[in-house]
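Technical note accompanying the year-one report. For the benefit of new consortium partners, we illustrate the data format agreed upon in the data management plan: each record pairs a sequence with a structure-token string. No post-processing was applied to the example shown here.
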Amino acid sequence: MKTEQQESASSLDRTFIGGLAWTAGSKWVAQGLTWLSVLIVARLLSPGDFGLVEMAGTFFVIANVLAEFGVGGAVVQIRGLDEEALAQLNTLSIFFATATFGIALLSAHPIAAFFRAPEVETLVAVNSIVFFIIGFQAVPSGILRRDLDYRRISIAEAVQSVVQAVGTVVAAWLGMAYWALVIGQLLGRLCSAGLVMAWVRTPFRWPTLAVVRVPLRFGYHISVANLSGTISSMSDAVVVGRRLGDILLGHYRMALTLAYAPIDKVGSLIMRVTGPLFARIQSDHAMMRRYFLIFTESLALVVFPMSIGIALVAPELVAVVLGPKWQASVGALRFLSLFCGIRLFAILISQILIALHRTAFTMKLSLIALVVMPLAFWFAADWGLAAVGASWLSLGLISVLPSYLRVVRDIDLRHRDFLNALLPSVIACTIMGIGGYLLRTRLDAFADKVWQNLAVQVALGVILYSGVLLLFFRSRFKRYAHFARSLRGGGASL
């Protein structure tokens, strides 16, 4: 039995590393072009342009959940769905997408009136095309994830990123203002969906309750959790747009982009692979503990220094990357970057709960957040953008705890093992943060030399962080090196 488990772990390790390699390769190529497009578009468009699109986008982030209604997640998580069930779910997904399209058209005018921005009505109506793309792609994409076909998933995501980046820059250069952001997104999604549907040709069958009842119930739990979670997470933009106006909303949106993009894109290299992997091993709790601790340590080592580093150099980063007109984003950027690390761990824990079919539990937590978070943002807006960002940090710490405790109980995880996985990054980040803070007091006299200040702070942070890890936790790196060598020989695991 032990030999079979070791072989299974070795096989999954190779699958995971292969998926990570494909995801990393496509993401890094696409991310370079994406970041270049963000910087170019930030200089071609105004904060008001970003604010208008963000106002319309608040509805679409919510409605995207309804357009699929958890169908893709059900395909990944429920093992043994046959071709007939998949075909019926495919048809059901189109029904949900069509219904969401109709809701969007009816909601366009009220949304524009709420934000007191007439342009938002047309933005909502045009952007509604994306729901049909989501509906047709849901089941084929779910099949790719279920089968751990990371190569095709990565290619489709890279194509979407590249097409969106190029389309947005070209449209902005042609003077299309806020429409550039919409055009780029639609083109990217359309190309990605076309690839996925060409690779996985899923037929359509008329749905019957007897066949779709179980996946529909699972999808319902996921959808309610995702919908309430999405509304909660977008309520900050709604509050900022309503109470502080489109210009400050544009600043807030750019702070979100700077905080999330570098951290989320690195984290997503792992997160894209972990969900289907947990679904594959959902009945083996020992294996789930093993991978959860590996992913926790890996994410902490990469994400924590980036998160704290962005918070430390936020003023210089905004000045150098975006220019002086975006300085109002600095306060929110600091808190949002710190929250981003917590957010990734919340997603990782949620993936385990979904793989264990604890969807009713995650749904209840999301409904609680739906009530608490918008109220917190509303009151925080009285103190400005930084306070709204700080609300994310404090609420994130509180909301992750119940999910973590449930995972600890369900997979028999020991708290000391989890804390031990976090220990290297926490200690190294603490020393890095102290060193960065002390350095800033010395650089105040050279405030006009922004480039130099940023370069010195980043260099010191890298030296301190890597130095602490190599000095006190070298054995961990040797273990990972041994793991990498063993993969080539098909041998041992971490």
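Partners are asked to follow this layout when depositing records. Residues 16-207 form one domain.
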